[in-house]
Design goal:
Layout lengths: L4 H6 L9 E2 L10 H13 L9 H20 L7 E4 L2 H11 L7 E5 L8 H10 L2 E5 L11 H4 L7 E7 L11 H10 L3 E5 L11 H4 L3 E5 L9 E5 L20 H5 L6 H4 L2 H8 L3 H20 L4 E3 L13 E6 L4 H11 L2 E2 L1 E3 L4 H7 L7 E5 L6 H14 L2
Parallel strand pairs: 1-11, 3-4, 3-5, 5-6, 6-7
Antiparallel strand pairs: 2-8, 7-8, 9-10, 10-13, 12-13
Pyridoxal-5'-phosphate binds next to helix 4.
């Protein structure tokens, strides 16, 4: 079925207003069905889980359906996921529950949102682990690969964390190949899938990862996140449950008295929308990124930070750039004066990447992050706005 942008946009109430949303990597707009289901849940079934009276059982069922839909969508077992407030929170919970031996090594990357760094630094401090840093240079294509990882791996390394897609560069990493290299060395791999999940299908078994997390508020839903931990990786996760509660599943271990009920129960609405749509989403996003990249690449005073290719197998439409003579903040400020385009400047919490790897100034990059509900006309219009605000 050809992608119908008009029909697609009708699913999102927020798109029916005079604002072009181009900060989708910050947070996407929510589906109307998600919004309606939250209102319905709170109106009719907002009771404490676990009860046996009529409304209680409805509530239990809705919550369980949210968990089931999330697990199925990412191809995980029901016992291999936990839902929680945010990816940052879930990684922090995991960092408090993981166990390694003093003197073991962990590898962290400098291409990350800090969410996939700080929890592991905290863990390293707690368990007296040694931290090794992994990065890719511009000459290496700013891409994390098994090749640039392997020199850091050794039998002492027990844990590696990296991003699936950088929230600045948009480049897709081959997590399967990275997972194979990590496992060959006998370590566990944790992936931040936050910038990947809004654009492509998540399949944790195909990826071969041990831990994987993303946030549904960037995937057309509300503020809730999912963490996957494979059954075998859960051997390293100490249960943080009350002593009288079960400790079998990841939810038992890290669930902390349940997730936000009204948000959990929206997940079937999101997965229903996404199921079977990924090819159309990829195609639409490919068109959008090509329009913007063709313009940015045509100017010698603009540097695209990350891949300049519009190839959808290489990147998602999260595009950051710098301009020789104008700083990112100025570009955004000037664009806001003359248009209804919403995009942003900064380091977007990938501060190590911006400062240490890309060598950027304090204002970081200008980032335009698109998703499938943006139109080609939106992006042609953005190019016209940029032409006006750039020298
Ligand atoms: C790549 C990436 N990882 C992690 C996060 C943090 O997600 P959360 O707000 O759910 O903690 C973000 C948020 O912008 C992100 O872009």
């Amino acid at each position: 079925m050809p992608f119908d942008i008009t029909k697609t946009r009708e699913h999102f109430p927020a798109l029916q207003q005079d604002q072009v949303f181009l900060d989708n990597a910050g947070g996407s707009q929510a589906l109307g069905d998600v919004i309606d289901s939250i209102a319905a849940y709170l109106s009719k079934t907002n009771v404490q889980l676990g009860a046996s009276y009529h409304t209680g059982t409805q509530s239990n069922t809705k919550y369980e359906e949210g968990y089931q839909a999330a697990a199925k969508y990412i191809n995980a077992g029901r016992d291999e996921i936990v839902l929680g407030g945010s990816t940052t929170q879930l990684f922090m919970n995991l960092a408090g529950a993981l166990h390694f031996d003093e003197g073991d090594e962990i590898i962290l990357s400098k291409m990350e949102h800090e969410t996939n760094v700080k929890p592991w630094l905290f863990m390293a401090e707690r368990l007296k682990l040694t931290v090794k840093w992994w990065e890719s240079s511009k000459s290496d294509g700013l891409k994390l690969t098994p090749e640039n990882l392997k020199p850091l791996l050794s039998p002492k390394v027990k844990f590696v964390a990296c991003t699936h897609v950088s929230n600045i560069l948009g480049t897709i990493h081959d997590v399967r190949a990275i997972a194979d290299a990590v496992h060959e060395a006998g370590a566990l791999l944790c992936i931040d899938g936050v910038s990947f999940a809004p654009h492509r299908k998540v399949d944790v078994k195909t990826f071969g990862v041990d831990f994987y997390a993303f946030s549904w508020y960037k995937v057309y839903g509300p503020h809730i996140a999912v963490l996957y931990a494979s059954n075998s990786a859960q051997k390293h996760v100490k249960a943080m449950a009350h002593f009288f509660n079960p400790t079998k599943t990841l939810e038992d271990k890290l669930g902390f008295a349940a997730s936000n009920y009204e948000n959990v129960q929206t997940i079937p609405q999101i997965t229903k929308y996404l199921d079977g749509s990924v090819d159309a989403i990829t195609e639409q996003e490919g068109k959008l990124q090509k329009i913007l990249l063709d313009f940015l690449n045509s100017r010698s005073d603009i540097t695209v930070q990350g891949s300049t290719s519009a190839d959808s197998s290489q990147r998602v439409p999260t595009i950051s750039f710098t301009v020789d003579t104008v700083n990112p903040k100025q570009i955004v400020n000037e664009a806001e004066k003359i248009s209804n385009y919403g995009f942003r400047w900064g380091h977007f919490y990938s501060k190590r990447l911006c400062d240490e790897v890309l060598g950027l100034g304090p204002e970081g990059v200008t980032r335009v992050s698109m998703v499938h509900y943006n139109t080609e006309d939106d992006i042609w219009g953005l190019v016209e706005v940029l032409k006006k605000v750039l020298p």
